[in-house]
Design a protein that fits this description.
- This protein is an alpha/beta fold.
- It has 15 helices and 13 strands.
- It folds into 3 domains: about 130 residues, 3-Layer(aba) Sandwich (Cytidine Deaminase, domain 2); about 90 residues, no CATH class; about 180 residues, Cytidine Deaminase, domain 2 (3-Layer(aba) Sandwich).
- Helix content is about 35%, strand content about 15%.
- The strands form 2 sheets. An 8-stranded mixed sheet has the order 8-7-9-10-11-6-13-12.
- Bound molecules: deoxyuridine-5'-triphosphate (DUT).
Length: about 475
């Protein structure tokens, strides 16, 4: 299953029965989402040539009252923070911003001015890179660093590094559940000679190479000192910081390794009443968004199954943003009603005897939270795509249709099952929403065209060839 975060496993590795840890803290979830946004698949390379200074692509998560309001990344011309300013304007007042790099002075002055309440950044190489060895850019790097320090010391928002140690057992739990993802299962089923663990480890290594971490301790300390964070260079803080950073990057690598790129993909299902329709996004973008949903699922309050949902809309203009035509509509995970105490509600599942104490009438589904706390409306003229870690249930299908979602990307997990308290029968008969389901190996069947594969069609459209707004 794509995200059966089976917390029975978690119980085995240490969490007590009334507590469903290990789970991701909100701070770490937002930080991980910001790192993942930094590597959002872009149509065009960033335009860093106009400036001598080496500007690094940056990811940004905008949070308002604990809910994600925006997911952004730098693109041609616009830095991530600028994209957020353009999109949210004065709605940024009171928001918390999570950056994958310390933002440059040009961005910082605008977001401070917008009245955000807090800015947290990943304490690696900043947006204006300090890892460059070129003397010609050093002057600009130093000028930017000085300006950032001045803005920081005079600013009202709290500018800080927010990282939390992982819950005990979380990394092991994430690795176990990621290794069991639909994508991994299909790969090992198709290729029996393949050693799942070796494959998973090698995929993780590829992702770990993305330079979220500063190579050596010495280099890292130099960067921290230049960023005015010399207090973090003192032991034991420095070692703790590096360990926390490395552990978070490993979580991200494990989640992403569960969905190997370009190997297994989403197939579009035939639909009797609607004409063939191209995929709304490329396989690469679909995979990226499902990984976002999987990260969200690790914050579930369900003692057994975590589900994550992310909704993106494809609007008219790309606007030089890293996300191209895509705008976040909302995201969520399954949890008990906002503001309630976890222990207030029943937590039993279908396999347990006492029906009175089952969770189903109390828990809010990932799709329900994503729609309730959406940051913008679903517009009829746009394609609106929901990325889900698990097949949507019959309680959610009318909500998804009613909201005007046009595409669902998901897995076959629990599909066509009726478990009594919860059923998954309506998804298969759903005809007015395009369905893309994890299935089959792209390499084996087709990589370039939308080609028939049984009753499934592979979504292979390349983002580069997408006409905007069609
Ligand atoms: O579209 C859906 C369907 C379910 N859920 C959540 C609600 C609930 O928290 C959990 C139920 O999962 P499942 O159907 O797997 O039931 P279970 O009884 O927990 O597990 P099992 O698979 O053993 O029956 O998933 C969603 O968020 N969205």
């Amino acid at each position: 299953p794509i995200t059966a975060l089976i917390v029975k496993e978690a119980t085995r590795i240490g969490a007590g029965p009334s507590c469903h840890d290990p789970k991701l803290s909100k701070v770490n979830l937002f930080t991980l989402l910001s790192l993942w946004m930094e590597v959002f698949p872009r149509d065009q390379p960033e335009d860093s040539e106009r400036s001598q200074v080496s500007i690094r692509g940056t990811g940004l998560v905008v949070v308002h009252q604990g809910k994600v309001l925006g997911l952004h990344c730098s693109g041609v011309d616009l830095h991530a923070a600028q994209a957020a300013i353009i999109q949210h304007g004065a709605k940024l007042a009171g928001c918390q911003l999570y950056f994958s790099r310390r933002p440059c002075a040009t961005c910082l002055k605008m977001i401070i001015n917008a009245g955000v309440s807090q800015i947290s950044f990943w304490p690696g190489d900043p947006e204006i890179s300090m890892l460059s060895t070129s003397l010609s850019v050093m002057e600009d790097v130093v000028l930017d660093a000085v300006a950032v320090e001045k803005l920081k010391s005079n600013s009202r928002p709290h500018i800080c590094v927010l990282l939390q140690p992982l819950a005990p057992g979380l990394l092991q739990f994430v690795e176990e559940t990621s290794r069991e993802s639909d994508f991994m299962k299909r790969m090992t089923e198709d290729d029996l000679g393949m050693n799942e663990q070796d494959l998973f480890n090698s995929l993780m290594k590829v992702i770990l190479k993305i330079c979220f971490l500063v190579g050596t301790s010495q280099q890292h300390k130099e960067i921290l000192i230049q960023m005015g964070l010399e207090n973090l260079c003192v032991e034991p803080y420095f070692s703790n910081l590096r360990n926390n950073m490395a552990a978070l990057v490993e979580i991200l690598a494990a989640v992403a390794a569960g969905l190997p790129q370009n190997q297994y993909g989403f197939y579009s299902e035939n639909c009797a009443t609607t004409p063939p329709h191209p995929g709304a996004v490329s396989q690469e973008v679909a995979r990226h968004c499902i990984i976002q949903a999987r990260l969200l699922a690790y914050r579930t309050e369900d003692p057994k199954v975590g589900v994550g949902a992310v909704i993106w809309a494809r609007g008219r203009s790309a606007g030089c943003r890293g996300t191209g035509c895509l705008d976040l509509v909302g995201c969520g995970y399954n949890a008990y009603p906002a503001g309630s105490e976890y222990a207030e509600y029943p937590q039993m599942d279908c396999t347990q005897e006492d029906r009175q104490r089952r969770k189903y009438r109390y828990i809010i589904h990932a799709e329900q939270n994503a729609l309730t706390f959406r940051t913008r409306d679903v517009k009829p003229e746009e394609l609106t795509m929901m990325f889900l870690t698990k097949c949507p249930c019959d309680e959610c299908i009318p909500l998804i249709r009613g909201a005007g979602i046009t595409h669902i990307y998901t897995s076959d997990q629990d599909r066509d099952k009726d478990k009594g308290d919860i059923s998954y029968l309506r998804f298969s008969t759903l005809e007015d929403i395009r369905k893309f389901v994890v299935n089959g190996c792209i390499r084996k069947h087709s990589r370039q065209t939308e080609q028939e594969y049984g009753n499934k069609k592979l979504c292979t459209e390349n983002t580069k060839s997408l006409p905007s707004g069609s």
